[in-house]
Hints:
about 525 residues, mainly beta, Beta-galactosidase, Chain A, domain 5, Immunoglobulin-like, 2 domains, 15-stranded mixed β-sheet
Amino acid sequence: MLVVACLLLSTQLARDPVPEARSAATAPAAHAVRKGPAAPHAFGFADVRHLAQQRAAHDYRAPSEALPAALANLTYDQYRDIRFRPESALWRGRAMFEVQFFHRGYRNRQRVNIFEVGPGGASPIAYSPELFSFGPSVKSVPRADTHLGFAGFRVHYPLQTPAYKDELIVFLGASYFRVLGRNQRYGASARGLAIDTAATSGEEFPTFTDFWLVRPQPADRVLTIYALLDSPSVAGAYQFQIRPGAITQVEVHLELYPRRAIDKLGVAPLTSMFLYGADESSARRFDDFRPEVHDSDGLMAETGHAEWIWRPLGNPRELRVNRFMDEQPRGFGLIQRQRDFARYLDAEAQYQARPSYWVQPLGNWGKGGVELVEIPSNSEVHDNIVAYWVPAQAPKAGQTLEFAYVLSAYLESSQWPPGGRVIATRSGNPGMGDNRGHFPAEARRIVVEFAGGDLGGLDPTQPVKAEVSADNGTLNEVTVERLANTGAWAAALIVTPREKKTVNLKCFLTLYGEVLTETWVYQWTP
């Protein structure tokens, strides 16, 4: 099942380590005069691109997943009992950034080759069991001469206080990574690439097989990481530039070299979890003390025509895939808007502190669409929401593809979107008591609340209008009013399906023809 594959991060081991950076120059010509030792090669993104092209020129070779039995058969609790020693962190005491590594074992079987890049080039970071503490539940400790390598790594930085370096970004499993800004808790994930997600042929999970960590200077506030991605379909080169802060940003540049034609390429993929929400009918499927359970509650996008879209997430009973066609997109993301602890009442999970992830394309991404995948789930441990950009033209073998974007992890922002936004979606029977008989039995009342932007300063007498459309639906009644208790503006509509199939709804607010809000996009299945 796709959601299980996403959750377990079923990945493959990396190839053999990439050789240490080569000299920048080939052998000198016969007439050249060498006056001294050659200058060391400054390893950079161009080298990673070259290595990715070399990979793509050959058939994909799946690496071995061999591990010593003691590590391969670890239980979850045993694996958690293996901890990196903070005092052994890379760049400890020498820079604002520090790096800690993950041990291989349990489900993290893939070996990733990790290098440090300095003025003299790239050097491999060697594994040693002395870097880790092995708790009492771990019965066998690897020998000192075991060349295990690492499963991944995490970068630490003093986000909250100078006295402690918090986790900033982590790379672990396939091409997954998670990033945090100030006062945030891990929730949604990002990925390097998605291939054939939700396809009947099955999803392919590319992996980051090699990383190069560029050694920062003591005062540096930006960290650069290079990565090599590989899979049966494609090889790729990645550059990550990480800028920590209240909104942590990761600028990503990538070049892809497909080995074969790819039916569906997912660029800048995001993965999250939505079990149920107060505004979503699936809440009635769960016997739970918590009002809402989700890492994200909506897909947001800004189209190439500057229209802002908000699509509330759901937990459907069947797989649901929607693509929002666009050209030159300005941004999209999986967003957590509800920031009140009372909406979740989960002191351990702290869902109100889960970050929103916003992708801002750099350059012209051309034609395509933002695709949203919602997978049925009965547990919050499953990442059942995926969103990514799909180019209109499917990649062909031998083609070179380039993309760049900025990924922002944030809690609150008046920039995304800059105007009024949806703060609630509710639905129910269209009438109560004597009013019930005035509407068809299959009709539904839906109320959408908007707030923010210019809405808060509008007098209740202003003729705010709801622009509503319903594909496969008949609108029986549409009203707009300002709610005296909250100041929000509520658009209420009653819709009756024309056929017993999905009704697609849209709604936004205007005043004298001026658009005041984002566009609410909703799917209702009778």
